[in-house]
Amino acid sequence: MGTLYSDIPSWMHRLPAGLKLLLLALSSIALLALSDLRLQALAFAAIVLLYASLGAASRPTRRLVVVAVMASALVGGLHAATGQPWLGLASGLRLVSTTMLGAMLTATTRFGDLLGVAEWLLSPLARLGVPVERLALQLGLMLRFAEQFFVQWQRLADAYRVRTGRAGGWRLLAPLTIHMLITARKVADALAIRLKL
Q1: What pLDDT sits at residue 1?
Q2: 41 and 93 in contact (C-beta within 8 Å)?
Q3: CA dist 29 to 24, 35, 189, Å?
Q4: What is the pLDDT of residues 7-58, one digit of tens each?
Q5: What pTM was computed for the model?
Q6: Considering just the CA atoms, what is the radius of gyration of the chain in Å?
Q7: End-to-end CA distance of the chain
Q8: Among residues 116, 79, 82, which one has the least CA distance to residue 94?
């Protein structure tokens, strides 16, 4: 499977995964709590500077950020069309800001480290008889497949653009679905063997 993780070291690679997840959660809550558009713009500028400080380590996630910018422009345009341009701008800033924060986490944190944090967070449920390892694995697989979906979409879009010179758009849905189903089947077979299901 492809990944958005970057092996190019940055200052954020040195932070523990748990701390990064905590900071991501607190930052996201703070962004939602901000109602003043000027404060949201300042927070967005600070996040852009943080993202830029990763340098080449942010390269695998740049397309994800571009997609978020396009989505936020669409959201802003829809709000402007309904007569609420400031709400659209606020929503767009929040969307791009949280996407950039998540992209920074994804680019600088190994999947195994995130899985370890998930197991630690879920460990109190073990007292209730919940199989924590399997629950953490399911959560990890969900996150990994979301990342894999984006990586596979990028590859198909690049291949289509090289062949035709145009963007793939909806034409990529069928091959993307087939690729993801094949990948899911391979992962399911590997898990069945590994877990002896």
Answers
A1: 45
A2: yes
A3: 9, 12, 38
A4: 899 999 999 999 999 999 999 999 999 989 999 999 999 999 999 999 999 9
A5: 0.75
A6: 19
A7: 23
A8: 79
